[in-house]
Design brief:
This protein is mainly beta. The protein has 1 helix and 26 strands. A 7-stranded antiparallel beta sheet has the order 18-12-9-14-7-6-26, with no helix packed on it. A 6-stranded antiparallel beta sheet has the order 5-23-22-25-20-19, with no helix packed on it. A 4-stranded antiparallel beta sheet has the order 1-17-3-2, with no helix packed on it. It starts with a strand and ends in an 18-residue tail after the last strand.
Length: 384
């Protein structure tokens, strides 16, 4: 969970009289996770958020797996994805299971409609491009290297900057949170955590839109997209407070944990969900034991599929990858450094690699649209 914060104007006590200049009450809106037992925020709307003029089904969004379920090492060139219009409507599914879906999109247009994911939390890694995430909670500026964490139910839309934008999205069935081992019993990040609350950026500008008319909202729920027409602009919030809101955390603010010998992937962990974790590989000093082998050893994580997205063209244990590559190493197979990489790593002082890893605890399937992006000979890259 994120820490308590507030923005805009709120009354001194919750659930008390708070009136607009017209004399009408502001409309309280409690948004939270896990019923009334999880993190939550209380928003104050100029118009009731329940006012809907019309609705219609747009499309189903069920994923289709490639027909070949055989197990092998996989490599996909996500940089070959074509440009698309919308950051929300034109995402390409890459991998999925019952817990998480991995998407990629290279949008070029601002969305005029609004979006609410009612069935999943999202981690959006901004691989390229600055912009602004607009939401009921205010404006959140983002830049290259940011993780945007968007809890389910948060109504939002993207405003893109002048540079090309590339977004890698993890859509999670369970809530996204920081690793439990880095948190006190009260939820504060501890001293040994690789980041702290100062690195977490909530929305910082609340612009209230008191506008009536017809405003298009796309809601994702039940693996279906529904269009709703609201009779008012949904960003009509005058103030809010709580611990449930979208936020940004830069991969460049992740402070690497190093040791005299090779440290295993959990030291890179940044987020956790019920059935997967997300890790950040960042520039760092290598191991400092005089006999250290910095490259990772071969390993079989038989309960995990390992997925790595390469956010630059350097990675200590890999060859043949480039910016925008994504690899899948299934849990049923041992994996490790490419030939020569362990030897080459000896004596090196540091790495400039930048990558995002997701380890899932249930097997992933490759989505059919990702198949054309695959390097089909990758599984042979361990043969010298």
């Amino acid at each position: 969970m994120s820490y308590y914060t507030s923005l805009g104007t709120i009354p001194a006590k919750r659930h008390t009289v708070f009136r607009q200049e017209t004399g009408e009450l502001f409309h309280e809106h409690l948004m939270g996770a896990l019923g009334f037992s999880g993190s939550s925020s209380l928003l104050y709307h100029t118009h009731a958020p329940t006012r809907v003029l019309a609705h219609r089904k747009l499309a189903n969004v069920l994923q289709t797996a490639e027909p070949d379920a055989s197990v092998r090492m996989r490599h996909f060139h996500l940089g070959e994805l074509p440009l698309a219009s919308s950051a929300v409507m034109n995402r390409t599914p890459i991998l999925f299971n019952q817990d998480v879906t991995v998407w990629m999109v290279r949008p070029i247009d601002d969305d005029e409609s609004f979006f609410r994911n009612g069935q999943a939390d999202e981690i959006v890694y901004v691989s390229r491009g600055p912009g602004v995430l607009e939401s009921e909670f205010g404006s959140l500026k983002f830049r290259e290297g940011d993780y945007l964490v968007i809890p389910r139910g948060v109504l939002h839309r993207y405003r893109l900057g002048p540079e090309p934008t590339e977004l890698l999205i993890f859509e999670s069935v369970s809530p996204i949170r920081f690793p439990q081992r880095y948190l006190t019993g009260e939820g504060q990040l501890m001293e040994h955590a690789p980041f702290c609350e100062r690195d977490v950026r909530p929305p910082d500008e609340l612009i209230t839109h008191d506008e009536q008319g017809e405003f298009r909202l796309i809601v994702k729920q039940n693996d279906c997209l529904t269009e709703m027409i609201l009779d008012h602009h949904p960003f009509d919030v005058v103030g809010w407070d709580g611990c449930h809101y979208p936020y940004a955390l830069s991969i460049h603010d992740f402070e690497p944990i190093t040791g005299s010998l090779h440290q295993p992937p959990p030291v890179h962990q940044t987020f956790q969900a019920d059935q997967f974790v997300v890790c950040s590989f960042v520039p760092r000093l290598f191991d400092y034991h005089p006999q250290a082998v910095p490259a990772p050893y071969n390993h079989s994580n038989t309960y995990s599929d390992e997925v790595i997205y390469y956010a630059n063209d350097e990675f200590m244990s890999r060859k043949g990858i480039a910016y925008g590559s994504l690899t899948l190493h299934p849990g049923g197979l041992p994996h490790g450094p490419h030939p020569g990489r362990a030897e080459e790593s000896i004596g090196k002082k540091s790495t400039s690699e930048l990558a995002v890893m997701i380890d899932t605890f249930r097997p992933l399937r490759v989505a059919q649209p990702a198949h054309p992006l695959e390097d089909a000979d990758y599984f042979r890259s361990w043969i010298q």
